[in-house]
Amino acid sequence: MPEQNIHGPRDFGDRLTYLVRRIDGALAQRLDQRLRDYGLTPAQLSALAQLDIEHPGTLTGAQLADRSGVTAQSMSAAIARLLERGLVHRTQSTVHGRRLDVSLTPAGAELLRTVQHDTLDAEAAVDFGLDDAELDRLKQTLRRVARALGVFLPAEQGDPAAPPQR
To answer: Domain named HTH marR-type: which ranges (predicted)?
Structure first.
């Protein structure tokens, strides 16, 4: 058992939530630097990526917020900026009169491809201290944990942890 003080265990390094948060913070800083070059925030990038997954379909702001792990208010601001830049289009739902559906524009799809290429290169340049097999196992494990926690992930073909496609 870790050494204790009046506040509890001293060794936070063994706590999964602490480790994940620290790693997320380090990776998010790198991503934020790249996104600034394109005038995007992480929420905006996530919205573009989620809309690309659904393309040619649409998603509501609430669905985008849920899939992106941000509040509805944050996603609303992200969508507003994407609309101003012509990267997404919003239309009145034909099914639900009060619902607004968001879709990806060709300009949004083009920017997403560019950003994905750039961020993929940046990720490949990071030395995670793992060999390829370890990195693949880590990704598979993280996907399983995400799904167990109800985090939306697009199904990966060939991923044994992936639920059946609908």
So the answer is: 13-147
